[in-house]
Amino acid sequence: MSILSLKNINYCYPLENEPVIQDVSFALEKGKVYGVIGENESGKTTLCNIMRGFIPNLYKGTLRGEVTFKDKSISEYNIGELAAHIGYSFQNPFTQISGVKDTVYEEIAYGMENLGIPRDKMTQRVDELIVLFQLEKLKDQNPFELSGGQKQLVALASVVALDPEIIILDEPTSQLDPKSTEDIFQIVEYLKKAGKTIFLVEHKVDLLAEYCDEIFLLYDGRLVMQGKTAEVLSDESILQYRVQLPQVTLFYLKLVGKKGKVPLTVAETFKALKGSGE
Ligand code: ADP
């Protein structure tokens, strides 16, 4: 069942003539993970902002087409209501930190406070998230004193805290080291198992290959490829859209086969790749 759908979306920023999103249509199904790729300035962040109702509600411009959340146009929801359903973590974690809370713990609770969630429920949820995101050692620290990567984790935990049905992640691992990046993908897997729908903008194709159900490829504001992860990433026409496929991903896809069962994780494939001399 589709939870969010876009139909013939076109969008032009204020005072611009050229549309940056052109005729984009797709439907997201509940409980699936969608990986979104595309070179810089292909329209990924703009698309995220359209999906969460930020455009054209708070950011004007000319939007055509229809975004539907649960069979109702998103223009019929108020922006606060929509934010509780469709969580969004910014590309830049510095933008996301509220700036009004003194500790990581309070920062994660902040959005829930605004939604009026009862205190005992809120405390329980923050405690769970501190463990899930491995923030135990940082929980009493000031969010502004954290590194970029740590801020990114806190920003994501704050979004997950609101328990939205759809979670849009705009390059959530851009500031993270490989270990924390893997941790984020594990959290994505956990959220998927909890029935969440994830829309994940990410450059790390090797990890998308392993964790996503489907891949969307944007090129110059158009959705040029879309489908099952292995099918899209194995399709040679992807190369014309300047997507870099790491060697490990190509090898992984060879092992997976177009529709076959995934035999190995990327880390295991990497080991096999080293052993094979490819
Ligand atoms: P991506 O996330 O793939 O890098 P963006 O959605 O940020 O792409 O940008 C898509 C296009 O929209 C780019 O050409 C960018 O310059 C343009 N753009 C982004 N924000 C604005 C804005 N506020 N005003 C005008 N043009 C913008």
TrEMBL record:
- Bilayer disposition of the protein: Peripheral membrane protein
Is the keyword Translocase in the record?
yes
Asked whether the keyword Transcription is assigned, the reply is no
UniProt keyword list: ATP-binding, Cell membrane, Membrane, Nucleotide-binding, Translocase, Transport
Example GO molecular function term? ATP binding
Which cellular compartments is it found in?
Answer: Cell membrane
Q: Which domain of life is it from?
A: Bacteria
Mind telling me which InterPro entries this protein's record contains? AAA+_ATPase, ABC_transporter-like_ATP-bd, ABC_transporter-like_CS, ABC_transpr_CbiO/EcfA_su, ECF_ABC_transporter_ATP-bd, P-loop_NTPase
Supply the name of the protein: ATP-binding cassette domain-containing protein
**Record organism:** Tetragenococcus solitarius
